Amino acid sequence: MVAYRIDRRSGVATYLQIVQQTKQALRLGLLEPGDKLPTAREVVEATAINPNTVLKAYRELEREGLVEARRGLGTFVRKTLGSAPADSPLRGELADWAARARAAGLERDDVTALFTSVLEQLYEGDDS
């Protein structure tokens, strides 16, 4: 099951953070078709956000065809995204790189900016 973490200082709408974190879990294989998402009540208890915010996020995921709500049962994953399993050797290499960046004194935002700039350069003109 996915555990949502809400960053109120990020500037990203709370419901979008839930959508993004769910998609990340789908890409990493942490959520698979048939898995049940936490109930709105469980998310509210864990994050202290409004239940309508959770429901809005789940509706967005449903609109995108990633999950389906089953009346009285909950919300379930319909399909997965990507092919980057959490146990990929690349994850270990990336973790090592991130640890070196942190040891070199880079802050989280610095690492994010550096990584994003490399991605933009590598995937320039790519629609994926």
From TrEMBL:
Keywords: DNA-binding, Transcription, Transcription regulation. PANTHER family: GNTR-FAMILY TRANSCRIPTIONAL REGULATOR, HTH-TYPE TRANSCRIPTIONAL REPRESSOR YTRA. Signal peptide: none annotated. This is GntR family transcriptional regulator. It comes from the Bacteria. Pfam families: GntR. Residues 12-80 form the HTH gntR-type domain. It comes from Streptomyces ficellus. InterPro entries: Tscrpt_reg_HTH_GntR (IPR000524), WH-like_DNA-bd_sf (IPR036388), WH_DNA-bd_sf (IPR036390).
